[in-house]
Amino acid sequence: QDRPCSPGSSFPMPRFGSCLPVVRRWTRGAPTHGELATEAPCEQRVHTLSSNDDAAEAVRLPRVKKGVSWTGSDDTYAAGGADEVLEPVGCQSSMSDGGDMICRISSRKSDYSEQVQEVLTLDCSTLLRGVPVTDVLRCFGRIWASSEGTEEDYELSVPVSHIDHFLSHAWATPRISKVTALMIYYNFLPALVIAAIFAISAFVAKALGMLPMGNMEDTYFIVGESTWLLSLFFLHDAYCHLGSRFQSVVFVDKLCIHQTDPVIKAQGIKGLPAFLKKSRSMVILYSDAYLTRLWTVYELASYLLLRPGGRVEFLPVDIPKFLMLGLVIVSFTPRSNFYAFWWVAELVGFFLEALLCYWLAALQKKVYDAFANFDMSKTKCFYEGDRHIVESNVEAYMKHMEHVHVDATLTESLDAFNLLVRATVPELLRASWGTIGIPFRITIMVDIPGIVQVFDLLWASFWTGDVLTAQFVDFLLTLCHWVLAGPIALAAGVYVGKTCVEKEGPLARVLTLIAIFLTLFAVEWALAVPFFLLAFLAQHHPVKALLGWVAYCCALLAMLFLIHGLPELFYSLCRGGRDSAPGGDTVESDDLDGARAVDSDDD
């Protein structure tokens, strides 16, 4: 990640890729300027050689060539020898006793270090609190109704040693949007497993004569889909009564920071960096309001700096609307004329997926543009007194981490912080979205209506009187098509949307939607050709069809590996419940600090 410095910039590059050597006070026998210049160009450090140099603090100085000037902070660097490290104007230095150089820097940096250390340390270990995700979701997200907290809300959280997910959100986002997004995020995979178990159990009970015969059209959607919906919206309530130990421990500001005791509340706000430092991942409930709020943007930037190896889950709150709409359309297609309406439902499904692909592409463009033009001074804050807290912490962090000169002004520190956010956050968000621009987990969510119906097909297939082996092969083919072929088609649609979304205007939007629709239709049916051939073969040669199914699955998996990559697929399939390991190494007290107040519905 190391990139060369850019002479002429208004301030040094951020720490990620900086070329700013650290110079400390020199004593007798220290290397000369020329010797220093021949060492490693990036992150170079020369240690103090004398025990009486404690008062001199390190400062990053840019390496410049002859005839090149660098303007950074308020320092101007004069031209020198071809390979000399030049001193900023105003730096008190002198050469004596055989070439000793004394560069005395103010010890003010230690003050900022103490400020950072203070906010990264909780006054009491019991302040680090988390809440089971079941308490966040029960009663259809009662706690999300208002940002005003009570003593009873605070008692829902308990002291913990770590936090699985730091829930970052804006209180301006509607309750229903956040709750449904979280339900799908935490419950969709367990609900799918439960639906499969019930559908298979119903099939076995029917085969053993324990359940009566019936009409396939009347019972097509009874088992799998209804069980999945019940599990999706009420599984967390069952966890509460069962006392499951597999619940995720999450941070919600309203529950984990005391809202009625001013002293404890102030301590919790000051210690927000400790919550971030102890969090294994961050789940962002993204809405249009998210990037306009000072505290939410600061939370994201703080976590990325505190946990550079941590995972950020970017969860748009509008996705459940598309999922529920698709589920309703497929579920309520008239039973008696199901096959007559099959093509209509299929075309409507493609159109909805095209809208989803276009919306995801437009959302990504909006997010990336917002971070590319990020400016902390333009964010909104309900109480402007909080802005001073945030800016003071940013300044302390930037100077403590030596991103800027210790004598840099507040404006220069904030400018450097803005550059740091613009350079690092978009790349990490791309990693969260996946290689193609859409996580594999979201593509699976989109196809959930079809997946749960596959299990209903298995439950109802016994009533058709066809060959059982052929029906089972058909079940495997259908499942493979929804789980593997569907995400491939959706990824292709998102790619086309990202390519065309730059064009503006009503006509351009319509043409983009048509292009996405045709792409989805073409890819979906191209991948479906082997499916129909194998389904026909299963009626006569089930064993050969089963071998063909294995080859079909391998080909689709290879495509998914090329699109998403193996690590992303593995994480998407295994995500759910409690994370098994931290997302990355924790950066200790040398890192960014911050605070968060939960004072209004606007922050």
Detailed description of the structure:
It comes from Pyrodinium bahamense. Keywords: Membrane, Transmembrane, Transmembrane helix. This is TIR domain-containing protein. The chain is α/β, with parallel strands linked by helices. It has 2 domains: 105 residues, no CATH class; 450 residues, no CATH class. The strands form 4 sheets. The protein has a 6-stranded mixed sheet, sandwiched between helices. Strands 1-2 form a two-stranded antiparallel ribbon. A hairpin with a 2-residue loop joins strand 3 and strand 4. Helix 16 packs across helix 18. The N terminus and C terminus are likely disordered.
What is the structure about, briefly put?
The chain is built from 21 helices and twelve strands. With 603 residues, the chain is of the alpha/beta class. The chain crosses the membrane at residues 184-208, 339-361, 442-463, 475-496, 508-537, 549-571.
What is the overall silhouette?
globular
Strand content: 5-15%
Taking the alpha carbons of the first and last residues, their distance comes to: 34 Å
How many helical elements? 21
| Low-confidence region ranges | 1-107, 334-340, 576-603
Mean pLDDT equals: 68
Overall radius of gyration = 29 Å
What is the helix fraction of residues, given as a range?
Answer: 40-55%
Strand segment count: 12
- Assign the structural class, choosing from mainly alpha, mainly beta, alpha/beta, alpha+beta, or little secondary structure: alpha/beta
Biased composition (Basic and acidic residues): 593-603
Transmembrane segments: 184-208, 339-361, 442-463, 475-496, 508-537, 549-571
Region (Disordered): 581-603
Protein name: TIR domain-containing protein
